[in-house]
Write the structure tokens for this entry.
Amino acid sequence: MPFQTDLTFGQVWEKKSIEELSKTNDVVVRAPRRTYPYWDFKINNLKYESKADKYETGNLMIEYSSRGKDSGIRTTTSDYYIYWFITNERYYLIPTPVIKQMIKNKDYVKRIKGGDYNTSKMYMFREEKFSKFLKKGDPNKCLFDISDSE
């Protein structure tokens, strides 16, 4: 998918993330630029990265490099990742330090290339690793048995 199409798709789910997480009197701030590397939005003083996956693979993909430069988990200053599986609007709210510790512990399946022309590098995690962070969506629509993963 071309960058502009990906960007538009991401912005739609970023807006949905803000709607899902914010309350009436919260102060919401969007990142100052479309390609801001540190966070996507803030609610009050908490910073969030918003990611959305179109495909139900049972995996979460966490980017760490794009076009030869650090990106994603390596550059973020976010407090949380909100990670959507859009086919059933299921999402996980994962503390960023948890992801960083899992990477440090090599608790991912493998590293892969992806994105536009395979110019991004990502860590691939099994979805069940994050089951305790499931916040919305039908756990029966997960590709794993959520009761076995706690």
